[in-house]
Amino acid sequence: MEAVGSGGRNLTYALLESVGKAIVTGHYDAVPFPTEADLATQFQVSRSVTREAVKMLTAKGLLVARPRKGTTVQPPRAWNLFDPDVLRWMLERKFSLDLLRQFNELRIAIEPMAAAIAAKAASAEGIAGIEAGYQRMVAAEIGDDDPLEADIAFHIAILEASANPFYAQFRDVVMTALRTSIRFTNRFKGRTASLPQHRAVLTAIEARDADAARAAMAALIDDVMDLIADAERAA
């Protein structure tokens, strides 16, 4: 790890990124976590920058400070897995089918219900957002949009169209984890996401058919779970 760049709070966030990623990828598994003074020297930043970054990492569940024991790295079970930074760092580790399966187990508990709620509660604007996401996927099929970003836009639009702030707050978590999940499924299938499956979700939401929307989204994620299971058996 090297010195971080300069520039106000950018220093803090650069240090947060460097140290957070190092913690999650196991850099400190076999060595004690450095003191704030040592971090400041190592990364050539002020003690105030180091102190702020350590506070932020503590809030994310990665570190804990105890009297006479100093600051130590927390075990993974203590990490805030709903923090987009933590999740992103985890996904940047060595690829893990376990983590991919666990994420999609979370999706199956959230997205079908979000689709059902959207079918009942979405405004015209919300449905238009889902339609826009789908049209981006159509454009991506002929090379006029990014397939990954288009697919993510479709799923995020459904969370937002649910008009439920609790579902909407899964936006960053779903967006971050989908980047890895979609790359895996597209690579494993050798093609991009299924347009008919996504069209079925959109059609059900447009028809205000909550049961059909739930079933269509569940079928879409079940397909991903099947691909992961096949990969696990082949591993």
What is the number of independent domains? Answer: 2
User: Strand order across the biggest sheet?
Assistant: 1-2
Shape: elongated
Distance between the termini: 32 Å
What's the overall average pLDDT, rounded?
A: 90
Q: Please give the largest β-sheet.
A: 2 strands, antiparallel
Query: By CATH's scheme, which homologous superfamily of the largest domain applies?
Result: GntR ligand-binding domain-like
What is the gyration radius calculated from CA atoms?
21 Å
Which architecture of the largest domain would the CATH scheme give at its second level?
A: Up-down Bundle
Stretches where pLDDT is under 50 for at least 5 consecutive residues are none
Number of helices: 11
Helix-strand sequence? HHHEEHHHHHHHH
CATH class identity of the largest domain: Mainly Alpha
Q: Work out the strand percent.
A: under 5%
Number of strands: 2
